Amino acid sequence: MRQTVTNKLSRSIHSKNYKKSPVSAKNSPIIFLTVITLVFLQQISHMQNYLEFNFRISPLQPWNEILMAELIEIGFDSFTEEIDGILGYIQTELFHEDQLKALPIFENENVKIEYSFEEMPNINWNEEWEKNFSPINIDDKVLIRAEFHESVPGMHEIIIQPKMSFGTGHHPTTHLMIQQMMDIDFNGKKVLDMGCGTSVLAIYAKQQGAGDTKAIDIDEWSVENSKENAVRNNVELDIEQGTAENLGKENYDIILANINRNILISDIPTYVSVLNKGGKLLLSGLCFFDVDDILEVCKESGLELKKKLQREEWVSLLLEK
Questions:
Q1: Does the predicted TM-score (pTM) go above 0.70?
Q2: Which of 45, 78, 138, 168 could be stapled to 142 by a disulfide with Cβ–Cβ 3.0 to 4.6 Å?
């Protein structure tokens, strides 16, 4: 019987140039296990609709790891472990069944793979969050709380109600981004928050004196929620639904992007194209084993690493153009 998703294990894997190597147990990718929480579910839902694939694999080892490596190459970004296989998650708009069927592993006679898939239901994160959410204290300086929590004297406060969008501050990546932002001078700076979720980062930037600040997310729920959170915190944000393709020619002094490895690798050159000289790019949504690939793209794009922070397996990078 399938376990409930909140009791499963998340498998995040990194397999640079994996397709270029022979398919064998020796080339199995690095596997990192972390407990799935409510935040993980928010992550896979905040950007847009996802498909959940149930892959049944016989024999299981080492083919489950090999399959995950190949699935990453066609856009899958999260996995959970099953007794007889894996569950894989991909944004609905990124999935093309012909790409899936063309994966080399399906031509291998040593393994049998069957799969089915379904669209994941939208979940009311507002209701779930109110059941589970507690205030987040970041270095005894910043408090992220809901309206129904009591204020704490002496703390800088951000009031967030997430609905179905990601960014309560509980996830280590949001925590790391805020930590990095504490040491940045935002006064009068033009700021862009990509994949804004709740817009907690954009709101904090404005509270720290930022000038014009734009927040962009592909998910309409995030756009709606961001507008509500901006009002809650008495800040003015330019909030849009879209992706990096919608950036145009407007330039920024500071760009914030807490998304995921695949999107960052794809979009970093676009971010750099609209980042002023001497401007700062702050990235997270990365595990420690993603850093080398990200830094390679950053170097090719003319960015210099200034600071790296790590919390658990998660990393944030501060870069300068």
A1: no
A2: 138
